[in-house]
From TrEMBL, chains A, B:
Entry keyword set: DNA-binding
Biological classification of the source: Bacteria, Bacillati, Actinomycetota, Actinomycetes, Propionibacteriales
Protein name: DNA-binding protein
Residue ranges of the TM segments: none
Organism the protein comes from: Nocardioides phosphati
InterPro entries documented for this protein: Pyridox_Oxase-rel, Split_barrel_FMN-bd
Amino acid sequence: MSEHWFKAHIRDMDRQESLEHLKGYTVGRIIFDDDRGPTALPVNYVVVGEDVLIATSPYGSIAHWTPGRQVAFEIDDFDAANETGWSVVVRGEAEVPAYADLPDDNEHRPYPWAEGDRRFHVRVRTTDLTGRRLVPA
Amino acid sequence: MSEHWFKAHIRDMDRQESLEHLKGYTVGRIIFDDDRGPTALPVNYVVVGEDVLIATSPYGSIAHWTPGRQVAFEIDDFDAANETGWSVVVRGEAEVPAYADLPDDNEHRPYPWAEGDRRFHVRVRTTDLTGRRLVPA
């Protein structure tokens, strides 16, 4: 791999810029603790207000380990050629929303790519919403 | 967003296939617990044996929170048009390797894109190495 003469600078995004990035994507990673420590699973998501809403299997590890607990949600994108990129991290408690609180129309609900029963919704109640950018020197 | 008629199947990767993917990338996410729960930060990495080696700031949160603790490391890639992708998750304890145990030549050491003092190395001692693929229906 070729080394760049000048390394990229790290710049913080403010909450609004972080939220814009969050709204612009549909795949991220839910970060949670199970009985063996922290782990991550990629999932499709939508943004509701400033919260992250995902749809998962009622029998899977996300449904088992996240409700009522502190979690994170991360998205990012990178440009290997230019050695730049950005990431956004949401932190907050995961909750299981009441059916009545889900978005009314399918279009605003999470749309999982993966097969299977994904009727179990988890909403990350955003407290922290931060982002960082690697900008070229 | 257009909905596909048939959703993708989830297939497990075996350890060897997961390792091949891990060796093929240079950016992933270190997943760890700090004093506010689980979180994730993107980092550049190299693979040493089956372990993940990163270089970070001695003053940052990775250096503060990971040594001696259980962590995870995640990589993935997605194809939004085809609604497919894959992910690999490493789990294990993070340790600070002795200088003598670092790869001899720079080429095999982590090459951080970001500016700053990144002389603090963290090695994730891989115990679990698993992967999943979303394959078209």
